[in-house]
């Protein structure tokens, strides 16, 4: 049997609910407070307490029968259809053609048109009601055109059915804790983390006592490969241009081992090649044509929006911070949203911790962070309903998943960073350390392998791991592409005769290897110089010695006599040169010669002194300036020469 109130108000279900609420209120249990009674009724009908009170008041004032409301309330329905159509059309057209239109502007234009055509128009507030009814798709179309409708056909990628480490997402995080560095200064450490989207296990976490960089990203990847094996694909936020540029070689190396390094934007790629930006609920709010534009919009326009697909790693960092707080670590950064009183107390507490030496050093903080990570891996995850480690074990035991391990030598080669160095005397310098190539053999030289001695002066590629110096340095031969292992140069003690002898022996062995290789290469070939115009080196030396002996030293003279004769001849030459008077083309040439002699430190004769005085008395102003500059320049030049010597 249908209740009376339900039968009476079948055509008005809402009013029937009001009556039912009122009857429940009137039949409430005795002794029950009004607040508890209202709460019970609200739970029974699935409405709020305030709505219960409003329904009760309405029935009390108006009775059980519904009171008809005026249909012209706020004049929402006072519009003629033609006026409404004009209002909406004007609003959409102006937004499309101009780019912006207010409801007030559309309403005023409608009123002017209605006055001419005799249409009925409601109030301005009612215009807002009618504009709200317009589909948001039409409004989006006026702003973004057909491309904005691509959002309707966007299909988000489901990451719930992945295998362990098939997809890992990476991001940077700055901790909300102050720590003390080696220099005694206070700073906030950073880290780069890779999170597995299936197990929620941190694939790798690398810490940095400052701003994160490319090596931080690479270290975290290496940590994960060593611990869990290969991953399938990475999706990371390439925040810094230099980071994404420098990582190209690592991307290529990862692909060699079947691992794909992908930009985070690829998670949001649509079927037509665009990149969608989503809000926290996964709703598409914008589109970008390229990865770069996606990153730019994501940072500038939607800086406060956390993307849905990378939300797990944001939650991971929030949990990470909470676990650190649970360990009662000092140095917590004050909350920017705190009140003035809370902010003052936070600063006082931080200053007190710092003055009493409670702030952790960077190494201590890293140790505590690793302990917090271990706690995270073992505790129940709300999304998984089990711990991350248990999720991985479930995949191993129930799904037959096995980690794909890499050999340690492959991992070591994978993370060797490329750089360019110039070979100088069979040596390459890296971070102030000189590295040399291996000892040579004749076969190595002939085959041009394992040898950088022949590359002296050339800039070649080298590979080394700045985070693992023990891995060594490799030089890449520019022709053969061979990786040549280099070792640090051994510094020989000046007084260690055995070490010196060993170094000399090693040097001679390298030289011997080259000479043997050369002899083997030309063996049986013979000489290539066949012209009679040339003699062999030995013949030339013998002939030159004979000619020199014949021309310079007569056989009848002794050594002493020969030296005396040379001295006598030299005296004659000097005396004869003094008697000769120089010949000048002009008086100016003679004056220049006198100036040069004075600058050279010579003592002038009386005739030269008289000529100099006479010439200077009659020279023009321009000529005087020229010679003054010449003398000044000559003096400075001779000062430099004297200082050099």
TrEMBL record:
Residues 414-477 form the Transposase-like Mu C-terminal domain. It comes from the Bacteria. It holds the Pfam family HTH_11. GO terms for molecular function: nucleic acid binding. Residues 39-64 form the Helix-turn-helix type domain. SUPFAM superfamilies: Ribonuclease H-like. Coiled coil: none annotated. Gene3D superfamilies: Homeodomain-like, Ribonuclease H-like superfamily/Ribonuclease H. This is HTH domain-containing protein. It comes from Treponema phagedenis. The lineage of its organism: Bacteria, Pseudomonadati, Spirochaetota, Spirochaetia, Spirochaetales.
């Amino acid at each position: 049997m249908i209740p009376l109130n339900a039968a009476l108000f079948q055509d008005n279900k809402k009013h029937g609910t009001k009556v039912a609420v009122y009857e429940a209120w009137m039949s409430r249990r005795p002794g029950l407070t009004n607040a508890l009674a209202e709460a019970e009724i609200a739970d029974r009908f699935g409405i709020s307490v305030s709505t219960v009170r409003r329904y009760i008041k309405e029935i009390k004032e108006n009775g059980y029968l519904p009171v008809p409301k005026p249909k012209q309330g706020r004049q929402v329905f006072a519009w003629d259809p033609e006026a409404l159509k004009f209002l909406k059309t004007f609003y959409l057209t102006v937004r499309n053609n101009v780019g912006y239109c207010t409801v007030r502007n559309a309403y005023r234009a409608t009123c002017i048109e209605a006055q001419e055509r005799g249409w009925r128009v409601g109030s301005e507030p009612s215009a807002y009601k009618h504009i709200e009814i317009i589909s948001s798709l039409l409004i989006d179309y006026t702003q973004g055109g057909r491309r904005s409708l691509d959002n309707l056909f966007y299909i988000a990628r489901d990451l719930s059915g992945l295998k362990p480490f098939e997809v890992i997402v990476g991001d940077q995080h700055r901790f909300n804790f102050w720590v003390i560095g080696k220099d005694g200064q206070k700073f906030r450490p950073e880290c780069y983390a890779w999170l597995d989207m299936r197990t929620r296990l941190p694939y790798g976490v690398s810490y940095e006592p400052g701003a994160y960089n490319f090596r931080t990203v690479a270290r975290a990847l290496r940590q994960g490969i060593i611990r869990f094996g290969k991953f399938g694909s990475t999706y990371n936020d390439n925040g810094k241009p230099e980071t994404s540029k420098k990582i190209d070689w690592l991307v290529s190396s990862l692909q060699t081992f079947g691992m794909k390094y992908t930009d985070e934007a690829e998670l949001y790629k649509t079927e037509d090649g665009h990149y969608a930006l989503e809000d926290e609920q996964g709703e598409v709010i914008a589109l970008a044509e390229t990865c770069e534009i996606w990153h730019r919009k994501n940072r500038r326009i939607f800086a406060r929006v956390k993307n849905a697909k990378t939300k797990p790693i944001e939650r991971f960092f929030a949990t990470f911070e909470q676990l650190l707080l649970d360990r009662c670590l000092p140095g917590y950064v004050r909350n920017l949203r705190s009140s003035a009183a809370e902010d003052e107390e936070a600063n006082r507490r931080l200053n007190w911790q710092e003055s009493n030496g409670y702030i952790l050093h960077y190494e201590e903080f890293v140790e505590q962070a690793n302990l917090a990570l271990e706690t995270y891996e073992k505790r129940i995850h709300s999304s998984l309903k089990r711990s991350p480690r248990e999720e991985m074990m479930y995949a191993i035991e129930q799904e037959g998943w096995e980690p794909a391990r890499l050999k340690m030598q492959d991992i070591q080669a994978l993370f060797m960073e490329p750089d360019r160095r110039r070979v100088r005397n069979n040596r390459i310098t890296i971070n102030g350390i000189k590295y040399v190539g291996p000892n040579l053999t004749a076969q190595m030289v002939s085959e041009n392998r394992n040898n950088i001695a022949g590359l002296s002066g050339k800039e070649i590629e080298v590979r080394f791991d700045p985070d693992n110096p023990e891995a060594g340095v490799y030089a890449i031969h520019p022709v053969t592409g061979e990786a040549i292992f280099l070792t640090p140069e051994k510094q020989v003690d000046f007084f260690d005769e055995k070490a010196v002898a060993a170094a000399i022996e090693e040097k001679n062995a390298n030289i011997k290897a080259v000479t043997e290789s050369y002899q083997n290469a030309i063996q049986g070939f013979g000489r290539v110089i066949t012209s009679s115009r040339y003699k062999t080196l030995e013949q030339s030396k013998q002939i030159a010695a004979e000619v020199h002996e014949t021309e310079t030293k007569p056989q009848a003279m002794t050594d002493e006599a020969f030296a005396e004769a040379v001295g006598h001849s030299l005296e004659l030459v000097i005396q004869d040169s003094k008697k000769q008077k120089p010949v000048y083309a002009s008086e100016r040439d003679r004056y220049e010669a006198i100036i040069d002699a004075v600058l050279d430190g010579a003592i002038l004769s009386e005739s030269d002194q008289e000529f100099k005085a006479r010439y200077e008395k009659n020279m023009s102003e321009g000529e005087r300036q020229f010679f003054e500059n010449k003398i000044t320049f000559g003096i400075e030049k001779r000062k430099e020469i004297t200082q050099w010597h």
